[in-house]
Amino acid sequence: MKRFLVIITFFAITLSSCDVLEQLNEVKQFANCDFSVKSVQINKLGGFDFSQYKSVRDIGFTQLISLGQQLVSGNLPANLSVEIQAKNNKSSKAAISGLDWQLNMKNENYGSGKLNQYVEVLPGQITDFTVNVSFDLHKLLASENLQSILDLVMDMDNKEKLQKLDIMLKVKPYYKSGNSIREYPGYLTIRP
User: Fold this and answer.
1) Are 81 and 43 in contact (CB under 8 A)?
2) C-alpha of 189 from chain center
3) Can you spell out the DSSP letters for 74-110?
């Protein structure tokens, strides 16, 4: 009977180890995917819903005054959604169980958070996933005036403006190891 239990335990440990190695391989494949920022959408700025605005002219006078006051006070909170595209050029599946992210501009951190979502990219396929970002826009663009900030907010898909600001998103994937979630040992950098 003891011999039978030892054999069962050995097989259970072996199967568990194979599962962890497979998941680590999926995370490594995820790290090797080609990433790009597909779109950036401003959801809120200074407490106002900007998701439906198409240009600066859509912003009301009262909102402009409030945004100006917030800018002068040194606090202009912004919430945006960044849609990331991952392309798997390898022959095996890439997957993560979630990730940590950091928003950086010119090597300075402006926001961070978590994505608690499973993301899978099959071989030769493309998968999109969204990361929600909250940060202080005043800190991000402290040297710009209100009109320049609003112009950027309304034209976040402009690749030249984004590249000039040297914006990058760093992500640290999670993977499943048995019943627990573990962090990948480094960050992946995604630039627009």
Assistant:
1) yes
2) 10
3) T--EEEEEEEEEEE--SSS-EEESEEEEEEEETTEEE
The two structure tokens encoding residue 111: 């926001």
The per-residue pLDDT for range 128-150, each reduced to its tens digit, is 998 887 878 777 666 454 455 55
CB-based contact 188:170 (threshold 8 Å): yes
> What one-letter code names the amino acid at 93?
K
Q: pLDDT for 96-110, tens place per residue?
A: 889 888 877 777 777
Contact by Cβ (8 Å): 144, 151 = no
- Give the DSSP letter of residue 55: S
pLDDT in tens, 48-95: 888 777 777 778 888 888 888 887 888 888 888 888 899 999 999 999
Residue 35, amino acid: F
